[in-house]
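name: query_chain
kind: protein
chains: 1
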Amino acid sequence: MKILIDECVDQDLRHAFSEHECVTCGYAGFNGLKNGKLLDAAVAAGFQLLITVDRNIGYQQNIGGRAIAVVVLVARTSGIDDLLPLIPAVLASLGALKMGEIAFFRA
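structure:
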């Protein structure tokens, strides 16, 4: 799966997805792009999943109909130590995620 890590997420999280093609917004050249433009750029680049900690993305953007799924990680902080415990559940659900869907994973 081609995965994009949002710039608001600890960039070291990409290592937890080593079996997938996973890059950061910075590496993809998407730093500074906000929700709608970021989603459009990610879809155009062929990303299938955006991982973010932005809990409001579903209120700010219409995800339905877009050729990308979004995973929102909800933890105490956006630091790697708080996010890593959520990753096994995310990995287990990758096959079930649908395009245009937002899935929340909570600590």
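note: Residues 90 and 105 are 7 Å apart (CA to CA).
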